């Protein structure tokens, strides 16, 4: 009860969703709750007394997806602030969702096995392309198509580390530095090349 009173005193605008989050925090281990106290105290010092604590991070930590990362993300929130930890948690959750779906589609035992047998579908470069998609109740269509390809592909893997793509952007003969754009399209080109390599390999094996 002391824990709940402490949380209610800090989280002033209590909605039904927030109540569920508060209850989940009250169930934290002693170590985790000690981190939460430090996080709240740090927030009060920087934002000022009486300010409502953002609860998005703790809502994200309610699910099973981020359960193994809970302590690490709480430490990040304590050391770097709630906002930075929330951004990291959101990105990590998206990555974990993609990983879990790829593992299922490839009938792999776990993510490590999927990475070992199908690096073309599990490289960081490939995952980064889909991590930017908005994910709520449904899996986005581009990711569904990617997962379908992964599920249908039973050929030996290709190796992303052996492929390099270099793009030059020029205007009037002079090169323009647009690293963000170059990296974005280099990743897309690599993904399409991987898909083409897999298809050709599969056709060769069927002949």
Q: Give a count of the beta strands, DSSP E runs of length 2 or more.
A: 2
Q: What is the alpha-carbon Rg in Å?
A: 22 Å
Q: What's the domain count?
A: 2
Number of helical segments with 4 or more residues? 11
Protein architecture, described:
By secondary structure, the protein is mainly alpha-helical. The protein has 2 domains: 1-91, no CATH class; 106-207, no CATH class. The chain is built from 11 helices and 2 strands, in the order ααααααααααββα. A two-stranded antiparallel sheet has the order 1-2. A hairpin with a 2-residue loop joins strand 1 (170-171) and strand 2. Helix 3 packs parallel to helix 5 (70-80) and helix 5 packs antiparallel against helix 6 (82-105). The mean pLDDT is 76.
